Amino acid sequence: MSIAIGAHVDQTDPIAEAKARNAPHVQLFLGDPQSYKGPVFRYDGGADALKADAEAAGVGLYVHAPYLINVATTNNRQRIPSRKLLQQHMDAAASIGARGLIVHGGHVQDDDDPAKGFDNWRKAIDATDIKVPLLIENTAGGTNAMTRYLDRIAGVWDAIAATEQFDQVGFCLDTCHAHAGGNPLETIVDDVRKITGRIDLVHGNDSRDEFDTGADRHANLGAGRIDPDLLAAVIRDAGAPVVLETPGGATEHTADTEWLRSRLG
Ligand SMILES: [Zn+2]
Asked: What's the whole-model pTM score?
């Protein structure tokens, strides 16, 4: 089995970026990942051109939603715009024919019962018109995060399992976040699958920080603190397409891809 390996790239010309890496797919932002302003298409010709050109080139597209989306929070001033922004990026992802929209699990406030966050996830799934698979990603940090530790991921999944669009919700496993978040990589693939039943995408990243530090700093593969054999084993066992979110550009991503290929066998 051959695992498809791509990378997170600049959004101006993701097709050229894919070609520069000889990658079958890429991930991009649509606009500013740190802003509540809606999606922006920076590709020449806009969404329709990007969709058509990506199809013609055989390049798969994944869209990463803005980091500040937090549909779990009990703070109305964050949750309501987050839901709106999630729908806008969902619509935008669909308009370019994306294979998935990746969104972080978010968090509740320090004193909140996490159950409120689980229920807010249920409401968000109910309220969103899901047009391409919505892939919820595990995060590295936060004391009251929804998808840092397995018990919380289970809480989210229990809450959303009865929603009508549940089959359109998947999981994105970030290897840096799992390690830095404090989840043993020896069992992470099985542990996640027991909860979610699926891993749709892997963010293949090494970590600049030690286990359970809660820090979210990606490193090139083999250059960080994750045991190299373990990192490769997680990616192999997950058996899903990989997006590298590692530092650098085409040269570094090509090196990371070769590093991984040589270890996947
Ligand atoms: Zn990631």
From this structure: 0.97
